[in-house]
């Protein structure tokens, strides 16, 4: 059953995927997504492995193309812009590498009836057949998630899951500028400053390709953690300089991560 028939409020929802060099997965994933979404978007972020040709053959998917690889955050920003520009009430984002199960898309839309952002969590519930996360990724996720909770007043369990639902009104309240993998940190700060309603829903923990790269020096765990810390500090400094209301979170402006 597709999103449009699940939504009892008459809302139009988009399912969208950032894509970069996913020629081995893209057709299979999109075949599944199309079973649950009337409107599907791919942002092809400069793929050069044949992914672009696969997307060009499909008539059931709209495609926004970045001529060169700009980064994960840039692809999400294009998704957000498309959602607002085309008048959708919200968007469900999921990755195109097989880690997210499209059959769960309607659950995210359903949960968005009572939230501005619905965020998938791989740690809320244990599913049979869950994969073991790479230790360094688990460590960084837990460390950053803990910092976000401490500094932003959230109660998150998974800061980095890309399976999310966003209401369009929420997207319009956030100023997302980061083009890289640290974009979710800026997003959480902007969400806190806008006092958005956030809920998590459980999703299975699936790792199909442990060799995937973050790119360059970010493959080094300590470098990546330091980079995330810097982005978080900068995002908090930005909302404080802009005088955005932080409610009880005003203490953010005087804190930083070492």
UniProtKB/TrEMBL annotation:
Keyword Glycosyltransferase on entry: yes
InterPro entries, sorted: Glyco_trans_2-like, Glycosyltransferase_2, Nucleotide-diphossugar_trans
Organism: Crateriforma conspicua
Listed EC numbers: 2.4.1.54
Record bears the keyword Phosphoprotein: no
Glycosyltransferase 2-like domain ranges (all copies): 17-173
Domain of life, source organism: Bacteria
Keywords from the named record: Glycosyltransferase, Transferase
UniProt name for this protein: Undecaprenyl-phosphate mannosyltransferase
Pfam name, any one: Glycos_transf_2
GO molecular function: undecaprenyl-phosphate mannosyltransferase activity
């Amino acid at each position: 059953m597709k999103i449009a028939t699940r939504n009892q409020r008459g809302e139009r929802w988009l399912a969208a995927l950032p894509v970069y060099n996913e020629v081995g997965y893209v057709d299979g994933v999109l075949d599944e997504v199309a079973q649950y979404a009337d409107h599907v978007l791919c942002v092809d972020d400069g793929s050069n492995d044949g992914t672009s040709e696969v997307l060009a053959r499909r008539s059931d998917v709209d495609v926004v193309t970045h001529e060169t690889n700009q980064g994960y955050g840039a692809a999400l920003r294009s998704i957000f812009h498309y959602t607002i520009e085309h008048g959708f009430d919200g968007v469900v984002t999921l990755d195109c590498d097989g880690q997210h199960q499209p059959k769960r898309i309607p659950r995210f839309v359903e949960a968005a009836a009572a939230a501005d952002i619905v965020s998938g969590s791989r740690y809320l519930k244990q599913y049979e057949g869950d994969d073991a996360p790479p230790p360094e990724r688990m460590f960084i996720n837990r460390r950053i998630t803990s910092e976000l909770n401490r500094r932003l007043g959230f109660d998150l369990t998974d800061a980095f899951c890309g399976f999310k639902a966003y209401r369009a009104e929420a997207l319009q309240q956030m100023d997302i500028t980061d083009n890289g993998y640290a974009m979710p940190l800026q997003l959480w700060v902007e969400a806190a400053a806008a006092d958005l309603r956030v809920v998590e829903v459980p999703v299975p923990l699936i790792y199909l390709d442990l060799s995937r790269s973050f790119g360059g020096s970010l493959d080094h765990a300590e470098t990546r953690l330091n980079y995330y810390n810097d982005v978080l500090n900068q995002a908090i400094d930005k909302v404080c300089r802009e005088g955005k209301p932080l409610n009880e979170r005003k203490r953010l402006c005087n804190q930083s991560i070492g």
